[in-house]
C-alpha cells in the first residue's frame, strides 16, 4: 500500500532566512521520525499541489511501515467498542479505547491470568471501580490476600463491607445457610455435595463412598428437622447429628468437623453475624492458614452463591471476583462443587471472574481447562514460557499474538473477547488516590507499605 506525500510551502524575505527556516523544519521532522525533502526545480508544481484546487502535480509516493499499514487493514485490527461498555485499556495497534460490555457475549465467564507483578489485582480493582461508578450491579469478592480491602473500605460503610475470616475472629458465616432456590434441582442434595467437598478439603484421609453416604443422610435429617426448631442448621448441628450415628466412620467425620465447630476455625460453624447485604462485599481470608484457605474459599463461594440467587430473584446483576482461583482444584470434590457453582453463576445473571497466577497448575485440571476454553472473556497479562505454550495450544493463539504477553509491561497483554484477540495497553496515572489504593507494588500505596498521599 502506498501513501501520497504531504506538500507544504515555506516563504521568507530572503534566501538566507528561507534556508534557516528550512533547516529548522527538517530538524523538527527528524525528531518525530518524519522524513521531509526540499523540492528542487519543482516549486511551481509544488505550489499547485498545495492549492485547494484538487490537483496533484507532485508524483511521489512512500511505502508504509508494517505497523502503520496494519491500522488500515480491517481484518488485522480488531476493536472492542461496545455500547455501555467498561473501559479496559487502549488497543495496542490502533490506540483506540477498549470498551467492554460482557452482556454482548455468549457467556459472561471471565479469567484474569498473569504472573506475579503483571498487574492482575490492579486490573481487577480498576474494573471493580468502574463497575461501581457506571452500574448499579452488586460486587462480591473472595480475597485470599486482603488486596481488595483498602479499596472497598475507602468506598465507605454505606457502600461496602469487609468480612474478616480468621481463626478466633469475631466475624462468622454459617456454612449451612441456604436460601430458597438454592441449587439447580434439589437444594438439599446439592448442599450435601457442598459439605462433602468441604470435608474433603479439611480431611487428611480420602472421603470414600461410605463417608459420603453418611454425610448425605445426616444433611437431609438436619434440614428436615429445621422447620420444627425454627432455627437454621449449622455445622454444629450437623456434627451433633453425626455423633448420633452408629457407624464408626460417622465418628471420624464428626472429629473432622470439630475444627470448624468447636475448634479454632469455628467462624463457619455458627449462625452468621455479618452484614452480607451491602452492594460490595469482600471476604478476607488472608489470616487463614495456607492449608485452610481452600476450605474457606469453598464456604465463601457457597455464601456468594446464596447472595447471587437472592439477587437473581430481584432481577439484579452480580459480579463475582475470585482471587487465587487455582486453590479450588486441590481435590476432586471441591473441583466438582466449584464447576457446578460456576455454571449456576452464569445462569443466575452473575458475571464470575477468576484470577490466578498459577496458570500451569490450573491447566493441569481437565475441569479448569474446560472452564477456560468455554469462557468468552480472558485477559492474559505477562505469562511465563510454559504458560504461554499451554494457553496458545488451548485457545488456538498464534506465536505472533502471544508475543504481546511475552515480557509485557504491567497492565499490558492480550484480551480474548469472544473470538477476537486484541492486544492492549493499560497504564494508570500514579499521582492519584485511586492508584495508591489499588497498587500492590512493594513500596507503593496502602497495600505495598508506601505513602498513600504520595
What descriptive keywords fit this protein?
single chain, 454 residues, alpha/beta, Rossmann fold, eleven-stranded mixed β-sheet, two-stranded antiparallel ribbon, 16 helices, 40% helix, elongated
Kindly describe this structure.
The chain has 454 residues and is α/β, with parallel strands linked by helices. The protein is built from 16 helices and 13 strands. It folds into three domains: 2-63, no CATH class; 86-164 and 276-438, Rossmann fold (3-Layer(aba) Sandwich), CATH 3.40.50; 187-266, no CATH class. It has helices at 15-31, 43-50, 66-70, 120-134, 149-154, 187-202, 209-229, 235-243, 248-261, 293-314, 332-347, 359-363, 366-373, 385-395, 399-402, 433-438, and strands at residues 2-4, 61-63, 86-91, 97-100, 110-113, 138-143, 160-164, 280-284, 318-322, 350-356, 377-380, 413-417, 420-425. Helix 8 (235-243) packs antiparallel against helix 9 (248-261). The chain is elongated.
- Biggest sheet details: 11 strands, mixed
Strand ordering within the main sheet:
4-3-13-12-11-5-10-9-6-8-7
The helix/strand series, from N terminus to C terminus, equals EHHEHEEEHEHEHHHHEHEHEHHEHHEEH
The CATH architecture of the largest domain is 3-Layer(aba) Sandwich
Question: Number of helical segments?
Answer: 16
Compute the CA-based radius of gyration: 29 Å
* Helical content (DSSP H or I, runs of 4+): 40-55%
Mean pLDDT: 86
Shape: elongated
Number of domains: 3
> What is the strand tally?
13
Q: What's the name of the CATH homologous superfamily of the largest domain? A: P-loop containing nucleotide triphosphate hydrolases
Proportion of residues in extended strands:
5-15%
Structural class: alpha/beta
Look up the CATH topology of the largest domain. Answer: Rossmann fold
Taking pLDDT < 50 over at least 5 consecutive residues as the criterion, the unreliable ranges are none
* N-end to C-end Cα span: 49 Å
Which CATH C-level class of the largest domain is it?
Alpha Beta
